[in-house]
Automatic annotation (TrEMBL):
This is Na+/Ca+ antiporter, CaCA family. Its main location: membrane. The chain crosses the membrane at residues 6-26, 38-58, 78-98, 127-145, 182-202, 208-228, 240-263, 275-291, 303-321. InterPro entries: K/Na/Ca-exchanger, NaCa_Exmemb, NCX_ion-bd_dom_sf. It is found in: Membrane. Keywords: Membrane, Transmembrane, Transmembrane helix. PANTHER family: INNER MEMBRANE PROTEIN YRBG, SODIUM/POTASSIUM/CALCIUM EXCHANGER.
Amino acid sequence: MLANLLIGGALVAVMVLATGIAIDQFEKLSTDIKVKKLLLATVIIGLSTSLPELFITVTSGLSGEPQIALGDLMGANIANLSWVIGGAALVGKAIPVVGEYIREDLWITMILAMAPFLLMIDGTLGRFDGVILIFGYLLYLSDLVEKGRYRIKQAKLEKHVISKHHLKTIEGRLIHIVKMTLSLAVLGVAAAKLVGVAVNIAHGLGASTFWVGLIVVALGTTLPEVIVSLEAVKRREASLILGNLLGSVVVNSSLIMGIGAVLSPVIFDDTLTKGISGIFMVVVLGLFWLFTKTKHRLDRWEGGVLVGIYLMFVGIQFLALR
């Protein structure tokens, strides 16, 4: 037990270092290519911080244990929209909501987050369902790419003369991309290793694989989102917080869950635990929408409510475990 704790602490330290490097490169790259930070964060940071979920989904799918991945993805989405964003609001006092998020991204996130639950009504998540989820992510991604092209074009039209002193070379951009990719890869691998340590401890307690994924594994795989969000609060980058969490929820619900279903279809065998998870997902989405839509910001007390909802969710799952 002590060895696992020491290894976990070392992995967390590696994750903190990798996150700092990733955010530095992200800021330089986003300034260089003139794309709004929410767009780039949603695609790059959101996808990269979901690497632990992707690793677990592929591994569990190939080994015939899709319940671990399903629990992880459900738990991670609930955690991201409750205690992760809520904790960021508590630390940062309040999180302002940017305009583009209000117009489109919130609704898109809610639709894609609920899509798996709608496909699971028949009690299974099959390969065809997985293809639908992956296709949904590709549509979402293509929309973001078109937005990015439009914004880059507008930026060029608004500024005809660019000083050579400020012009970035292709080599410089590639360096930023390589550094950010490597740091995020280290972050994902470290988080996956940390989850492995947590799973070993949980299995010793005799918990089910879905429950382990829902509570223990999800807590580990959301650590990248937690660290990126805390760093963004520290640097007062509200758009990075929202882009990170929105991107992670979308990737988890569509791309990664779709890949998992294609690799190994899921048949539900623990309807109580999954039902509780579905109810809390609806509650969290509803509260998140209400809090951010009314005042265009997430206040500290609202963040406290979201954290409290997650603690309630974990408590009920512990009671259900008995």
